[in-house]
Structures are given as C-alpha cells and as structure tokens.
Write a structure and sequence with these properties.
Length: 112
C-alpha cells in the first residue's frame, strides 16, 4: 500500500522506503545549510537575501528536468518558502489552504 506523498520543499527528498530525508546532493545541502545559518545570523528573510548573492535550487518538482538541478536566484519569497515549510520541523500538515464555493446574486459559482 502506498502512502500519501506531498511535494517536499527544496532540500528534502523521499528515499527508497518513502521516508523523508535530507537531499543527498552536497550542493543542495550546502545551500540549505547556508540559508538557515544566514537566517540565524540575520533574523529575517530580508537579511538572508541581502547577505547572500547565492542561488538555491528551485522549489517544487525541480528534479524532473532530465535529472538536472535547476538553480535560481535567492529571493525573499523562496527564502520564506523554505523557512515556513513545516517539513523542516518534521511535521506533516493537512489542510494548509482552505477554499469554499460561493454562489453570487448572478448565480455564478466562484471559489475563494
């Protein structure tokens, strides 16, 4: 029986048994380690970006391009994506995003 898998953040991967582990790629591990070290030193995502000219692997399905890593500029939103992801705390989260359907007076259905 297969378990539910969510997309992991940059720096974490699934191993052969389906467990979440730190990415075995040295460059990826170094980039994530540097990001967290810069956050501890500066205290904010803005300070991480300001203190670094580094690149970071692009989040999401970033290993699908013929097995090649894709690296992108370290931006505030990418730093926040790593720092706020509960997977780095070893936590599984369900229902992070909520939506509901609404029928407006013109009988149009919208999702919010």
């Amino acid at each position: 029986m297969e378990s539910l898998r969510v997309t992991l953040p940059v720096g974490l991967v699934y191993d052969d048994e389906g467990s979440t582990v730190v990415d075995p790629d040295e460059e990826v591990r170094a980039a994530i380690t540097d990001l967290f070290a810069a956050f501890r030193a500066g205290g904010s995502a803005y300070q991480v970006v300001a203190a670094s000219r580094a690149e970071i692997p692009i989040a999401g399905l970033w290993r699908v391009w013929a097995g090649q890593l894709r690296w992108g500029r370290l931006t505030h939103s990418r730093v926040l994506g790593v720092l706020s992801n509960p997977a780095f705390a070893g936590t599984y989260v369900f229902g992070r995003y909520h939506s509901h359907r609404v029928v407006d007076p013109t009988r149009q259905c919208t999702t919010r």
